[in-house]
Amino acid sequence: MLKALRAARTARVVAVAASALLALPLAACSGGDDSKDTGPVTLQFAWWGNDGRAKVTEQAIDLFEKKYPNIKVNTSFGGFDAYFQKLSTQIAGGDAPDVVQMDRAFLREYADRQALLDLTKYISDGTLKVGDITPTLLPAGKVGDATYAIPIAQNTQGIFYDAAAWSKAGVEAPKPDWTWEDLRAAGQKLGQAGGKVAGFGDFGFAIDWFDIWLRQRGKQIYTDEGKLGFTQEDLVQFWTFTDGLRKTPGVLAPPSLTTQLDGSVANSSLIKKGVTAEVNYDSGFTPMVAAYGSPLAIAPMPSDTDKRGMIAAMAMAYSVAKRSEHPKQAAMLVDFLINDQEAGKVLAVSRGMPANSKVRDTLAASLSPTDKLVYEFESSVTDKLLPTPAPQPKGGGAIKTEFQRVYDDIIFGRADVSSGAKRLIDEANNQLS
User: Fold this and answer.
1) Among candidates 261, 263, 207, 214, which has minimal Cα distance to 237?
2) pTM for this one?
3) Paired strand residues for 354
4) What pLDDT sits at residue 162?
C-alpha cells in the first residue's frame, strides 16, 4: 500500500482555487547559492499522476536518498488539473517545489513568467547529463537558447481499445492504415452490440486530438512563430465531424461522460466502462490497463490522408523552480531520475517510454506484458511519427482549457459548432496577443 510505504512524506495534492497563469507575477528572485550548499538539504518534488505512478516514484526516490544521504526529498502529487492549479498558486506565492513535473502545454508559459531555472549551467558542468536522451526530444525542453525542462519520456498518440469487446461485437481490430470512416463504422457496430456502451470516447474535447487532425492535413495548432496555425473553418470542420459521430447512435460517448474528462484515469470514459475505446497517449497505457481490470490493445490513429498525424512527443519533463534554494541538488535529482539505470528499472514506463535510450533499451527485455505492448507499439509506428514540436506559446495552457470549455457548451446544446469555433478563435488570439 502506498500509504504504508511512505505515509509520512507523501501527500496528495487537492484542487484549490488558483489564479490564471497569466496572472502569475514575475519571479524576480533567483534561487539559492549552491556553491555554499554543502550540508543536509531537503527538496520538494511534485508531479501529477495516479497511485501506481506514485508508488514507483517513491521507490525511485528511496534509491536517490540512499545514494545521496544528505538530500531528503518530500513529495506530492495529484490529478493533472489539480496539480497545475496548485502549482500556479505556489509559484504566485513564491513557494514552488524545487523539482516539478512539467507539461509541454505550460512550459513556455512558466518560462516566460521567469518561474523556471535555466538548466544550461548544470548541463555544462556535468551535473545534469543529457547525452543519452533522444536528440529529437531535447529541443522540446528549450525556450530560446535556455533549457527549462529535461524530457522524462517520449510517447505518442493512439487508440486504446478492448480487443475482447471488439471481437465479441464482430468488429475487426484496427488495421495500420484504417480511416476515420472505419472508426465511424466500428463505432456503430460496437454501440449496437454493447447496448449502453458506446464505441469510442468523444475526442472532440481535447485540443491535443484536434492537433492530430490538423497534422494529417499539413497544419498544426501553433506556427513556429507562436501564432495560431489553423482557421475557424478548420475547427468547424473538426467539430462538425465529431458532432456527426456523436449524433450517430452508438459511436461516441454521451456528453455526461465527456464533460467529466480531466486527464485522470478515474474519469476516463473507457475506465468508467462507458465506451470500448478512446484516444490517449501511450504513456498512460499501463495505468489504464490496471484500472480497467482486463487487457487492452493499442492501435494507431485513423487518417484519411497519407499522414497519421501522430508526433514523437515529449511525454512530460522535469523542471527546476527558479526560486529553488537548492538548485544543484534539484538538478542532481533530475539527473538521477532520468539517467540512473536502477531508477529506470523501477520507474519503467510509468511516464512513457524513457527518453534515455540506454534505459529504454535496458528495459525492453524485462518489460511486463502490458509495458511491452507500449514498446512494441512505438516501435511499429516510429517511421510514421512527426518530429517533436517546439514548446507551446504563452497562453497555450489557457487555450487548452478554453477548448474543452467551449466543447462542453457545444455538446450540451448551449452553443452551436460555428459560434463555438469563433469563440475559441477569438479567445486564442487574445491569449496569444
Assistant:
1) 214
2) 0.73
3) 153
4) 98
